[in-house]
């Protein structure tokens, strides 16, 4: 009898791994929302207005703090949001991971040797008028555009 009570008491406790996943998934959702807001700001606002790097970094920092506080406040006030997150946390985490993987791949490609060679080729071609005209008339369907004020690649 004592063994059965002990076993039933243990079965009602949650496994430590599920508690860890519960906490981790909650934080992943919160930081996923923060990352999505920063990405949307950079993609739509900063790129559209051509902001320099320093104001963008400052704005990103302020946006991270403001979004985190807003999401944390909504998390406490709206139990319905907590329930939705608990029900769909697996899908939310998969979506966040897929988005971050895509962004990492884009960053990795933008820093690759092939991309740097392409930038160097465009820069060097922009220095010679014959090269520019040949490249622009090479294939009009590809919309090759070589700007005249291209800066040297870093």
How would you characterize this protein structure?
The chain is an all-alpha fold. The chain has two domains: 2-111, no CATH class; 113-154, no CATH class. The chain is 82% helix and 0% strand. The protein has six helices and no strands. It has helices at residues 2-12, 16-49, 53-77, 79-110, 113-126, 129-138. Helix 2 (16-49) crosses helix 3. It is elongated, with a radius of gyration of 25 Å. The N and C termini lie far apart (75 Å). Residues 1-11 have low confidence and may be disordered.
Structure in a nutshell:
With 154 residues, the chain is mainly alpha-helical.
What is the CA–CA distance across the termini? 75 Å
Give the count of helical stretches. Answer: 6
Rg is 25 Å
Mean pLDDT: 75
Q: pLDDT below 50 for ≥5 consecutive residues: which ranges?
A: 1-11
For the record, the count of structural domains works out to 2
**Assembly state of the chains shown:** single chain
Tell the overall outline: elongated
**Biggest sheet record:** none
Q: What fraction of the residues are assigned to beta strands by DSSP?
A: under 5%
H-E order: HHHHHH
How many strand segments?
A: 0
The class by helix and strand makeup works out as mainly alpha
Portion of residues in helices?
over 70%
């Amino acid at each position: 009898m004592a063994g059965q009570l002990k076993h039933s008491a243990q079965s009602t406790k949650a496994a430590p791994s599920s508690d860890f996943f519960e906490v981790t998934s909650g934080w992943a959702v919160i930081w996923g929302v923060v990352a999505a807001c920063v990405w949307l700001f950079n993609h739509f606002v900063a790129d559209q207005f051509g902001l320099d790097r320093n104001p963008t970094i400052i704005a990103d920092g302020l946006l991270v703090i403001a979004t985190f506080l807003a999401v944390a406040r909504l998390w406490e006030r709206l139990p319905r949001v907590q329930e939705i997150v608990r029900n769909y946390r697996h899908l939310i985490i998969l979506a966040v991971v897929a988005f971050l993987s895509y962004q990492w791949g884009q960053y990795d490609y933008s820093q690759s040797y092939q991309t740097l060679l392409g930038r160097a080729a465009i820069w060097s071609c922009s220095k010679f008028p014959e090269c520019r005209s040949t490249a622009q008339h090479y294939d009009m369907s590809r919309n090759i555009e070589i700007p005249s004020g291209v800066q040297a690649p870093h």
